[in-house]
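Re: duplicated header lines in exported structure tokens

Our pipeline writes sequence and tokens for each protein into one text file. With two proteins the header for the second block appears twice in some exports. Here is an export where it did not happen, for reference. First protein block:
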Amino acid sequence: MASLSPFLIVFSITLFFFSPVSSITCSTQKLPSTHSYTNCTNLPTLNATLHSTYNATNHSLSVAFAADSPKSDGWVSWGINPTAPKMFGAGALIATKISGKTNVNTYNLISASVPYKQEKLSFDVWDLSVEDVNGVITIFASVKVPEKGDSLNQLWQVGPITNGTIGAHALEKVNLGSTAPLEVAAAAVAPSGSESGSKNGGVKIGKGLWLGFVLVLMSFINM
């Protein structure tokens, strides 16, 4: 029987073992013991999650938004648009990573012009902080929400830092589709530790891993 070349076998094994497989999910992310939430959602794009708890007493939402930390200078953000599911008109919490140092501030996204200016938002924000741990940036905050707002327009994004300032994000499908409704009631009543959205046990299997596995299997079959 014909067999695959030694080079192809080595290449297959390399793909199998070195393809990236990690993924941020609600079930795998470890938050500080000082932060706990009633609900968590695996957001549909940009490998991000949102932990949240709704406080009906003061009509506020405590959140922890997590996304991959930029490998070099860059930014990640999470925000709310009070009027529509789009970027313009949103109030955003943007965490920047510049020369290894991470900071977070509030920004009003009133136009496509960048860099954005740090401004007070149309809704109150407090307990704003950020951490960059194990390749994940997490933004912590509490935000005031409308008393009768059952659903909020949330959006999230990632992008580059250009000349020390926030640059425009990419216009790929995953970037343009990074918006979804946030059900306030779910954050109030969901059992602790629950999660919504797509789940796969905390592991995302890359195409390279599958290809490597198939090629290795074929090499043994054809020996």
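Second protein block, exported in the same file:
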Amino acid sequence: MTWLLETLAWTGVLIAIVLVVRRPVARHFGARSAYALWLLPFLRLLMPPFVLPAPQLPPAAIPAGDFPMVAGPAAASETALPVETAIAGSPHWVPTLELALISVWLSGALLYIVLRLAAYRRLRAQLLADAIVVGEAGAVRLVETSATRSPLAFGVFDKIVALPAGFMALPDRASRDLALAHELSHHRAHDLAVNFAALPLFALHWFNPLSWLGWRAMRRDQEAACDARVMEGRDRRERTRYAALIASAAADPGPRVALAAPMACPVLGDKSIIHRLRSLTVNELSLRRRRMGGFLVGLAALGLPLTASVTYASAGAGEDNGPSLAPPAPPAAPSAPAVPSAPSAPLAPSAPLAPATPIAGGDSAQEGRRVVVIRTKDDKEGDVEHRSIILRGPDGKVIGADSPEFAARMKELERHLAELDGEIERSVKVDEKRIKEIEIRAHAAGERAAEAGSRMARDMARIEMSCDDNDKAIEGRTDDGRKVIRVCRKIVSANALSGLKSAREAIASDARMNAETRRRVIEDLDREIERLERNPNG
């Protein structure tokens, strides 16, 4: 139970943290990094407790006078009476109240999940009641139905995109393709599966306002991340068309559902539409910045084990860790002292060492090399050994250090050492030759790699922003053969400005759109138009 409560507390804290940092993260690292932040509370929900071995604590010392001596069963029963009285007077309503609160909490979470799943099943049945299959995009079916007025993605295993009746026959093919790209991007990113997986996380917090705020914020970040995937690599003109499509879809939201991923995200309200339109006006973030955002989210995920619950395993099988209610056992009678054993007999002294063997004379020596070791011992300060090696010749005579035979043997040893030195030197020369060959090959490989890099650098195109009254990109080469593409910044900005003005006129003339929504969208577009007019060079 402690693990469940700690999980509830930590997931609530993480949801609150994500709600605070999601907008700065989206501004500096992109919408996809902000959407990835919701992985943190979900992973904390799945994290099991860490089970550690039970601590080995020494038994507490009990003073001898704290317990009376128990002489028999009557005394034992008298000692147990106060304990039973204390148990009878304990408040039994505390665990009952705790169990009731936990039951209400889990029942509310289960009801939260059941209601969401039931709403999704009703939506699916309503959309497929009169649906007509009009095409396929991989594993995704495209159907037209009168139950929706905007494209709608749903289904985890049976993936479907529901389209309004006559959607595939619309004359504006560019807007139609952008709407389809958005819904198909939801399926490719498995956003519908993410919504189902996140249900238990927010269901456990059904009583907490952060749960409802977190669900809506996660859906907004999901839509913004989908927009970022669709708009990646596209120019300003397509971004403007996409913004106009989102704004126009807000006037006709279609069915309001929580588990599907509609184009205009109607369940999330007008604030989500404004958030998505603002995200489209942000300049394309660099790949390095987006990777940095993913790295920071991964680093935060690695720190989640610091919040894990810690439990201790039981000290042993069958051991009762709770307080014992039985009276203390009477002390055992003292045992008789053990009979001391008889002292052992003293050890016999060791026998004296035999005298050293005298060196045999020359007449009794045998042919060949003999070694005689003379040992002496002195036990006053400990065991001391002195060893001396005597070398004898074939005739049994001792060979001294100044004898000719000793010198001859030393010369023979030096000759063997010289031969070994020659072999080592030859081996070293062979190794040096091989090392030289390896260095030559490595140098040649480095030169080839440098030459290939130079060719690659010459072949890479360089883009320059310049204006010469030409609205087309001009391709040429420099003196060193490098490709150069020149584009006019003013003309690019002028095209973007024209697209924004067209979108503003379309939104301003759309009488079906809510007045407050139209006013906010037009204000955002006016600010962007004013910025481009003030700074046509971008």
